[in-house]
Amino acid sequence: MSLKAKIEAVIYASEEPVTLAQLMGLLGQEAQAELDQIAQAQQALALEESEQDSDVDLENLNREISAESEPPVSAPEASPEPSEGAGEESQEQRSARENKEDKEKTRRLREHFRSILEELIADYTNGDRGLEIREVASGYRMATKPEYHDAVRGFVKSLKPPLKLSLQALETLAVVSYKQPITAPEVAEIRGVDSGGVLGSLMARKLITTAGRKQVIGRPILYKTTKDFLLRFGLKDISELPSIEEFEKMAGELNEQEEIPMEAHEEHDAPETAAELEPERHTHLPQADGSPDPVDDPLDDQIPDEEEQPAAESEATVAQAERDLNN
């Protein structure tokens, strides 16, 4: 059984994404043996090539022979005296060389595993299969291809109900995912309502978790998304979330589509000239007590309609204060 087949079997059998470190710890010895075999094969190939290229130029041979027959006279070299710290330096150099060799060995193993994983990903992508290997949450896992999601979705719905989140939970989760790490008061300020209960529900579902405390007065708890959040939404990391600009563009397109029919309806029903508005100005509905139509008071036009707004504003202020106290 090849190393590639074993990696494929491990990824298939695992429910969680399999990391590169896990694969190296599980199959590192077999991968190193495979690398040694590859190195031996390369050495044997290089030896065969050197034997085939054994013909050397005659001029170079003659030059080498003449150089050996007349060796240059040189002064005898003095043998280097061993220094006192030579033993210690050689020991340090040996340890440094061993560390360098270990790092190089680990790097080659990592590259070897990555190359095998890339081959597996390409095989599943290019082949006529319903599965693919995806990189999710710093690991690798098997998943169904997007073109077969409808068939899989129908099958999954027949087995058990999927995880459902309320609108409040989705809003809170979106705020945490885009603003993390974030505190509960900051979430409440963005949403406009208290989100303490929703945060507790998201923590119970293991979609968010605590991330320490913010270094401000009161030291409120910080919240962030979890690895389960990436698994649920099929994300490699937080950078794959849609940007705010994309959401704003989509919202603007939806608003434009809704405003076009509304404007057409208003233009159809609204009076076109001031002359058409004049009869409506003097038209009054009959009173409920049967009294005659009220007479237009010229002072009515001088009283602005905003006089009733202070009362409404005060009620809104009181309601906002009550909400702030509850929060």
Describe this structure in words.
By secondary structure, this protein is mainly alpha-helical. Among the domains are: 1-49 and 95-162, Arc Repressor Mutant, subunit A (Orthogonal Bundle); 164-267, Winged helix-like DNA-binding domain superfamily/Winged helix DNA-binding domain (Arc Repressor Mutant, subunit A, Orthogonal Bundle). It contains twelve helices and five strands. The protein has helices spanning 3-13, 20-52, 58-69, 86-126, 149-159, 167-179, 184-191, 196-204, 227-233, 244-269, 274-281, 309-326, and strands at residues 131-136, 139-144, 182-183, 208-213, 221-225. The strands form two sheets. It has a three-stranded antiparallel β-sheet. Helix 1 runs antiparallel to helix 2 and helix 2 packs across helix 4 (86-126). The longest helix has 41 residues, at 86-126. The chain starts with a helix and ends with a helix.
